[in-house]
Amino acid sequence: MDMMTLWHLTGWEFAALAFAALLVGFSKTAVSGANTVSLAVFAAVLPARASTGVLLPILIAGDVLAVLTYRRHAHWPTLWRLFPAVAAGVVVGTFFLMWADDEAVGTSIGAILLLMAAVTVWRRAADRAAQAAVDAEGDPGGRSGRSERSGRSGPEEITSRAGRIKARSYGVLGGFTTMVANAGGPVMSLYLLSAGFRKLGFLGTSAFFFLIVNTSKVPFSVGLGLIGAESLLLDAALVLFVVPGALLGKWAVSRINQRLFERLVIAATVVGGVQLLVR
């Protein structure tokens, strides 16, 4: 595998990777999708394809910490609906990696993320406009009440036909992007936001989702030569920085209101998409 070992890194390169690992921990317990910045840092310091193999175990460590923190808030009906589609996306992504180069991978995923971010912003603006119209007419115990209840107990729309189609579409795309570039975070962030998740439900559901999905990717990554003894040695040195990042995220998330949380997630998605396009 074409990659630098721990011993070939300069001090500045290791510091950059350590910061990226800290950001992984923060993103897992605070602003999901922010780890696309980590993806860009790893790809800048290490060979792009090899960087995905180094980053995967660090992401799994962050997922474990996120599950321990938000395990009570996962919405399992959403997870069960997503997993079959995600599995299909991972298989497609594995075949794609067999022939695609770094430029093709980065360009395609970056364009997809920016498109979905735009659609999500448009949808949420339309939903707010519709809610404002309902509120102006008066809605005692109606749509406003349902919206608040769904925010606490999980989205109701996943049981509808449109909800199932959307879950499958995002699931396939999420599986594909997470396999080829560890970039599934923004995809699933946009899906969970569009489905109406509040902060804790969002973080709990995404924590279990990525722990299961990232763990399932390990055999594929080993088979593709992306994970080996050299990459695991580097992971052992970097994983220590995930813990303080996760603790910082846990401290910060209680101080972020819902509107700001949503804006940060979308902003992180846009930044990640741009980075993938230009790297």
The average pLDDT score comes to: 79
Main beta sheet strand tally, sense and closure: none
**Overall 3D form:** globular
**DSSP strand content:** under 5%
Summarize this structure briefly.
With 279 residues, this protein is mostly helical. Helices cover 80% and strands 0% of the residues.
Explain this structure to me?
- It contains 12 helices and no strands.
- The protein is mostly helical.
- Helix 3 crosses helix 10 and helix 8 runs antiparallel to helix 12.
- The chain is globular.
Question: Which structural traits does this protein have?
Answer:
single chain; 279 residues; mainly alpha; 0% strand; globular
Set down the secondary structure blueprint.
Layout (H helix, E strand, L loop, with lengths): L10 H19 L5 H11 L2 H23 L5 H24 L2 H36 L5 H11 L7 H21 L2 H11 L4 H25 L5 H10 L3 H12 L4 H21 L1
